[in-house]
Amino acid sequence: MKNPIALWDLSRHFRTKLLQSAWMYVIFPVLCISGCQSTMSEDIQVYVSDFASGDLSQISNGNLGIFQDKSVMGFYHNDTVTLSLEGLPAHDALRITVELYVHDSWDGNVTGVGGPDLWVMALDDTEVLRTTFSNSPCTSSYCLYQSFPGSHPSFNQPKSGATSANLPGRCQYQNVAGWTSMYHITRIIPHRGNRASVIFWDEIKQTNARNQLCDESWSIGQITVSTVSIQ
Ligand SMILES: [Ca+2]
């Protein structure tokens, strides 16, 4: 019998995808047709940080780290980080861009003691990305596929969609090339109201590792949030 919690999560995932699809392919085009001149414009940058200043005042569970001589927010394993935004100007959507570093031995979609290694982004109560990453090298007969750039569960080669695929590992594979991959992830998400919470968390799994944070972790190099309006 399948786990009812997993079925609920799956159901929630598909509801989220349905709402996003409805917005992008039905609601927005209808608004455009009815107005004929409607356009989507990026209005105001309401948050940007590369963490060089050390300011984590809007972030809960924020940690500062250094990777490759660059300030990052990290390092995390089975953690949740929340960016709280208040006093937002009027808008119809938020554009969120994240620079994500995936460190060391992530295993993608594999199930068992090693995974799946999931990473999730949400806006308020709605998940906008639920995916997996893999840094594992493939051979002709063995490959730990990842879901990104798709949603979990989908199957793509390790490091698919990465901006940088050959950075050195952080801990387990410290200074070994290819064991950190970096991604730029952007989502435009319907949203109204003057407050928002942008939430990042992982559900990575490596129960046979002595030091799980060393075995696989993640960090964020930059977050940018802008309002988007339909005119
Ligand atoms: Ca794992």
Mind telling me the CATH class of the largest domain? Mainly Beta
Which fold name corresponds to the CATH topology of the largest domain? Jelly Rolls
Shape: globular
Query: How many structural domains?
Result: 2
Shape-level CATH architecture of the largest domain: Sandwich
Helices and strands, with pairings:
Blueprint: H1 4-35, E1 40-49, E2 59-60, E3 64-67, E4 70-76, E5 80-86, E6 93-104, E7 118-123, E8 126-132, E9 164-168, E10 177-190, E11 195-203, H2 212-215, E12 216-230
Antiparallel strand pairs: 1-12, 2-5, 3-4, 4-12, 5-11, 6-10, 6-12, 7-8, 7-11, 9-10
Describe the structure using short key phrases.
five-stranded antiparallel sheet; alpha+beta; seven-stranded antiparallel sheet; single chain; 42% strand; 2 domains; Jelly Rolls; binds calcium ion; 231 residues; 16% helix; disordered N terminus
What does this 3D model show about the protein?
The structure is a single chain. The chain is of the alpha+beta class. The protein has 2 domains: 1-38; 39-230, Galactose-binding domain-like (Jelly Rolls, Sandwich), CATH 2.60.120. It contains 2 helices and 12 strands; from the N terminus they run H-E-E-E-E-E-E-E-E-E-E-E-H-E. A hairpin with a 2-residue loop joins strand 3 (64-67) and strand 4. It binds calcium ion. Calcium ion (CA) binds next to loops.
Short description:
By secondary structure, this protein is of the alpha+beta class.
